[in-house]
Write a structure and sequence with these properties.
alpha/beta; 16% helix; 12-stranded mixed sheet; 40 strands; homotrimer
Chain lengths: 346, 346, 346
């Protein structure tokens, strides 16, 4: 029972309040429908409130004042967030540091922090600095001169190119590439002359980068992803972009060069953003939209080219009826011509 | 001549019937226009039937009753399938197993099957189970606790994260990532708190995964790809998705979290599918379409938002004529106003 | 001062002409606004001509006849190209060759050129040929039988599969996959039988491939990327495609199987191209467009399905007004019916 916690302990951990048996012991988490008496579950969406009456869970995380149906309850401000925190508490054991394992390759003048793990097949280039508590998985390649803060996780086969700077508590999923050359060429009359991309990428703290996502280094200065921003898988960030704090960039989004994205922006899946534009704070862009120009803050947009989201919904409702609309107009033309000729005869 | 086969032998292998010289010896395959007398070719598309008269091939695979133009023929039910099977027979030699080569890294308590090859630079984590006949290419990283069936091929630099389960006869192309963390965060009032993704990915037998494709692990349970389904390159499958049997998911498709795709579904290139929806069996979706809600079975859809494919074709035919349509309507307005004023005067 | 150059030396290097102090010494490059007296800057866009008066730069690259505002000037035909060339001169030091470093894995019968670097964790398969001056970064995997020309750069964790042929002076960004199996399956009545993909990929000289981009090998023959063409990140090129010379294929573009792209073609981000079609020379396609059929040369196209770019702009201007257009048409119908009934009564 070393791994169980009482509801009292959990409530203290979460800053919540127990209604019911404070001494009830919990060993983990489960969905409403599947939870047994040693599990805690959560009610975040009021739509599912009736399911609380039927759950076999030992306790339910819910908002203050929710109907308990006689269950033990921990009241919390944000049940979904509380659930995530308990998942961490019960299910995520920080692994013991393993040091530099045999088969890892460490360059010259590398500075390694305390309590790190560097797996076989990982490579850390010359003059790199790896902070305390970092985990570098097999096949991850960190080029020369890279700096990484503390407790950052670099998954297998991710690549961080020369001189890029990564913050603390970042997570880089497998296969992500940070610091690839920006796509910059000068036409020379025949073909394209590659413009050296001598800038870097900076990820601030708590940034997370999805699998096989690519972030290009700046031509001269910095491609910047600010604190707390999360990028999903297969995202493309071109050179010289600046992405604000706490943004959500969903899978397969592409952002062209030198664009600036504000704070708390959400770009849904497969959105494309043109270059050299600005997107204001708190903007939400619907999936597959194409953004050709700057977007003012605090609004939602959709479509290619993007327009206010509500306008897009209304316009898209007409699209399947366009053939009918066209027929109607043709018929009206005939009727008007008929009217005109009748009137002429009168 | 050890590598040649007679038409009789090939017909037996394919379950077909020879018309012509059964003893004709064949050493390989070639297209209709390029085949010499020791090669067999195929006629799958009736459009090219006339080319049979001019081919230099020693024999032609064709459907029963096809015009042979005096050539040797093997009649088969499905000439394209027969061609693919002969390609395998003549051109694909299963390489001899090489065992665990020097420079491969094997964790603790790993269970390795018979007749495997594990190349230099490959990493197999603790407690993994690798079935008979598997080939693990250089730089492939298999995290702890992964299970792989027999005769599965994992190409270079592919990554399979912890505890995922891969079936038999699967093919994982280079750089594919299976089991990356799902994109799940709980807003905490300021930014986003990462929700631990403690589920797994399961690939059933005969699943093939394209280069740099990403399949996220479930939050709690399983992201599932069923038997026989093929994913092309750069596809994104989000957490908790379920994809049915024998689906074709073409390059750069993205499927959002918790969506369920039926059996025999085809999603063409760059399609985007929203989350928490259901697509019925045998659905076909046209390239670049965006699917905002569930789609009934046995039909074709296109567009963003998607509509029945035929409706989309008709609607798209009107789009380039919209400016003209608008002008027509403006002109009609004027003519009607004119009619109204004339009528008023009468 | 060993790393500085006089304006005279730079003008000779660039084939330009100095106006001002030929002996002025330059140590590097900087943007107009940030350059100090030992830096050279450039004026490419006439929009910024006034900034020349305020720059602190030691000299300005500009077109012949530009207003110098009393600054030292090097006149060149193409200031942007000249800037790129000086970036190379000042900031890109070709690293000294390091040979085959410990921890690299070299197969049997490999032919290695002079002055190469092969980093720890790189793998070169049997019978491969690596030209003079190549750099193979950590974790890059080159399968058996691959041929690479001279001075080609293969970044970390890129994969080049068996027998593919890579030209000279190519750059392969991290995680790119060249020669993955084409997505080819023959329906066998139940599911899909994989068609062996026994062809290769050929990249000619001066081709550059973006991070995590995928180029599939041909089914039987060759997927071909011609001289000088640049592919951005996360691009998909399917089997049997042929891409011409000096094309720009921007991020997240997907080109389906067997399509032929001419010379000097630009496909903007997220464009999708169907299979078995031809795109003529000098075509430009706007971002996110979908190309269902062949496109004639020397023109611009946009939209899904694509149309001439100007037509698309006009059509898209109508889309947000479709609901209004529909209301107008409904109102016109009523007015016409009213007119008809009035006329009937007269």
């Amino acid at each position: 029972m070393a791994d169980t916690k009482t509801l009292k302990e959990l409530a203290e951990y979460l800053g919540g309040v127990v209604r019911g048996d404070e001494s009830c012991r919990i060993s983990g988490l489960a969905p409403l429908e599947m939870a047994g008496p040693d599990k805690i579950t959560f009610l975040a969406n009021p739509k599912y409130a009736a399911k609380v009456a039927e759950t076999g869970a030992g306790a339910v995380l819910m908002a203050a004042g929710g109907e308990s149906h006689g269950r033990n309850v921990i009241e919390v401000a944000n049940p979904y967030l509380a659930f995530a925190k308990l998942l961490n508490l019960f299910h995520v054991a920080r692994p013991a540091p393993l040091g530099v394992m045999p088969g890892a390759s460490i360059g010259e003048n590398v500075l390694l922090g305390a309590d790190i793990s560097v797996y076989p097949g990982a490579r850390i280039g010359d003059n790199a600095v790896i902070g305390d508590g970092c985990i570098i998985h097999p096949g991850a390649v960190i080029y020369a001169g890279v700096t990484i803060g503390s407790n950052t996780l670099v998954h297998a086969n991710a690549v961080i190119r020369e001189r890029c700077r990564i913050g603390s508590r970042c997570v880089i999923q497998p296969g992500a590439v940070i610091g690839s050359d920006g796509f910059g060429y000068a036409p020379d009359g025949r073909g394209y002359y590659p413009i050296p991309q001598i800038g870097i990428v900076v990820l601030e703290d708590d940034v997370e980068i999805g699998a096989n996502t690519c972030i290009d280094r700046a031509a001269l200065e910095t491609t910047l992803i600010r604190r707390g921003t999360k990028l999903d898988n297969l995202v493309q960030i071109a050179h010289n972009c600046q992405i604000g704090e706490d943004c959500m960039i969903v899978s397969q989004v592409g952002i062209s060069g030198s664009s600036k994205i504000g704070n708390h922006v959400t770009l849904a899946g497969q959105v494309g953003v043109a270059g050299h534009l600005t997107i204001g704070d708190n903007v939400m862009v619907g999936a597959q939209s194409g953004i050709p120009g700057s977007l003012p803050a605090n609004a939602g947009y959709s479509g290619t080219p993007a327009m206010p989201h509500k306008d897009w919904l209304k316009a898209m409702a007409v699209v399947p009826r366009l053939p009918e609309l066209r027929k109607t107009v043709t018929a009206l033309e005939k009727r008007i011509a008929e009217l005109e000729s009748q009137l002429l005869q009168k």
